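U., I forgot to send this yesterday:
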Amino acid sequence: MSDAAMAKRDAGFRAADMVKDGMVIGLGTGSTVFFAMERLGERIKTEGLKIAGVPTSHQTAQRAEEYGIPLTTLSLHPKLDLAIDGADQVSPEKYLVKGRGAALLREKIVADAADKFIVVIDESKSVTGLSAAIPLEVLPFAYGSVCRRLKELGGDPVMRNGVKKDGPVISDNGNYIFDCAFGNITDPKALEDAINAIPGILECGIFAKLTEKTTVIIGKPSA
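Result:
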């Protein structure tokens, strides 16, 4: 296992060990979260841990089934004890950029529903300031006007295209995913508000309003 994978495993396992019996938790999308789910599966088998998870993507739901993690929905459990998710960039203020896995809309909904938000990363995701292109979930009907408005904000929107398919990436909700570069982001909260105020944008990948309940776990390869 590479150092990066070992660091992700360390972060994921540490997050999973924070889960207590009887909790209903949010399950994010991505490789680091999948390590947390692996550990949760182990705890279910060896400790008899009783939990239920709300998945943020079809991929996460499939992985949860493989690990024996019971699933539920926000309709049945609109308030969650905690959510575990990864991030593409994390600043010292605990501002995040998320959405490389195209699950940002459901991830933000689940994080908002949780009492605690546990973010698991390796050291490469820890940055002094946010600068990554911001993933966006966009209603297909509106993408032309959305792009015009993003350019007026100083952004450079690019539709995300599939790697093993022709055409655009489609989210689990049936929408387009764009990536919009803004350079160095000096005011993440203001930019999050400005992007989300554009009609046709369903959600952006800046997570700047959840800092008070966010705990960041940075995995170490030597752990």
